[in-house]
Amino acid sequence: MSEERTSRPEWADDGKMFATSYVKGNDRAHLAKENRSIKRKERSVEEYVAGVLNHDRTILAQAITLIESNAAKHTEKAQRILHELLPYVGRSIRIGITGVPGAGKSTFIEAFGQFLCEKGHRVAVLAVDPSSSITGGSILGDKTRMEHLARHPRAFIRPSPSGGTLGGVHRKTRETMLLCEAAGYDIILVETVGVGQSEVAVRGMVDFFLLLALTGAGDELQGMKKGMMELVDAIVINKADGDNKKKAEVAKEEYNQILHYLRHATKGWETKAYTCSSLYGEGIEQIWEVIEKFVQTTKQSGVFEERRREQMKDWLHAMIKDYLHNRFFHHPVVQQQLPAIEEDVMAGKQPVTMAAEQLIRLYEER
Ligand code: GDP
User: Fold this and answer.
1) CA-closest residue to ligand 1 atom 7
2) How many Å lie between the centroid of ligand 1 and the Cα of residue 105?
3) pLDDT digits (tens, 9 = 90+) for 156-188
4) How far is the CA of 295 from the centre of ligand 1 (A)?
5) Is 117 inside any structural domain?
6) Which residues on adjacent β-strands are paired with residue 275?
7) Which residues line ligand 1 (CB under 6 A)?
8) Residues 238-285 pLDDT 10s
9) β-pair partners for 272
10) What is the rounded CA–CA span in Å between residue 165 and residue 132?
11) Which CATH number does the domain housing residue 247 bear?
12) How many A from CA of 102 to the centre of ligand 1?
């Protein structure tokens, strides 16, 4: 058995790449394989729904594959499954985790996830990897990650959907989150890598957002965008162990001083810095206490529910935008006229606003 096979838990869907294997850049081949895998195990909507509600991880994985497929037939079926499952979604705490590569995200999730499972929770780990929509490859999935958690009977790990547009990756992650909730996972961890755009998207799908940071804060603080710090509900300085422990404490104070002057991401909640060592499991419990306090505070004030409602509305708007964008740019009239209009604009022969209006008029009159 190859290394890849042995690190794959028994319930992982055969046709689907797992977090412990590299997601190759060849997107078409990958999707073709995926579609074959769906075909082989084609189930009825009722079977999918019953399987998910029965906490069957194999069927859950297959239902997610259906959601991730770009084939119209699968999308339609996936939407019917989601519709049936809607009464069972939403009863989880959704936690986003971000940080630069090397900050220790997978080590943290491994420790935090196991801690939560031991406490009796059921934990699903999803990933939003912006690189997968650009290169078809993956930053988050390129090494062996979270091996112990992956084998835990109360945990479920799903890598970032590969291929498609960034908007597509976000939709798939949101819908996957709902499926996991229907399958009884009461903690959803959404991991992303720190490159701006996807952080805003993840903020838009979680209740609590956590930034994993490193020491050497002096330099890092200079470089870290204020906007990033205003997106999160906690900053956790990881690797607070050994020689680094003191430095981590200093960094925590520095972060706290800056946070004091920034706008907080969540109304009624003060974003603060903490330290932890994911490698030695220190400080993990405290972070969970912070999150529990956050949930209690925001549920009491109504901010929790209000954010979720707003997120649904934003999601609807994002979907409409995506849909219209695709319709517009795929329309034959637009495809035919756009190159010449682009040329005119670039050559300074037509003002941009006028050109855009002309193209939209052509599209609307089609
Ligand atoms: P990711 O790229 O953010 O997912 O980071 P990883 O979890 O892969 O961690 C990057 C490196 O930092 C690995 O070599 C880890 O073993 C190490 N690391 C992660 N957390 C800790 C920690 O708490 N303490 C120490 N000393 N090393 C850590």
Assistant:
1) 104
2) 7
3) 999 877 666 777 778 889 999 999 999 999 999
4) 28
5) yes
6) 237
7) 99, 101-107, 238-239, 241, 277-279
8) 999 999 999 999 999 989 999 999 999 999 999 999 999 999 999 999
9) 234
10) 9
11) 3.40.50.300
12) 6
In a domain, 307, yes or no: no
Identify whether residues 232 and 350 lie together within a single domain.
Answer: no
Same domain, 232 and 117: yes
Counting atoms of ligand 1 from 1, which one is nearest the CA of 212? 3
Q: Which of 107, 148, 211, 280 to mutate to test the pocket of ligand 1 (most atoms within 8 A of CB)?
A: 107
175 Cβ contact partners less than 8 Å away, ≥ 6 residues apart: 67, 78, 82
pLDDT digits (tens, 9 = 90+) for 65-84: 999 888 888 889 999 999 99
Q: Which residue's C-alpha comes closest to atom 19 of ligand 1?
A: 104
Distance 101 CA to ligand 1 centre (A): 9
Backbone angles phi, psi at 213, to 5 degrees: -125, 170
Token pair of 45 as six digits: 């909507």
Q: What backbone phi and psi angles, to 5 degrees, belong to 102?
A: 95, -10
- pTM score, whole prediction: 0.84
Structural domain including 331 reads 313-365
Atom of ligand 1 nearest to the CA of 145: 8
Query: Measured in angstroms, how far is the CA atom of residue 356 from the centroid of ligand 1?
Result: 48
Q: Answer yes or no: is 196 within a domain.
A: yes
Where among 264, 280, 301 does a domain terminate?
301
Boundary-marking domain end, from 249, 275, 301: 301
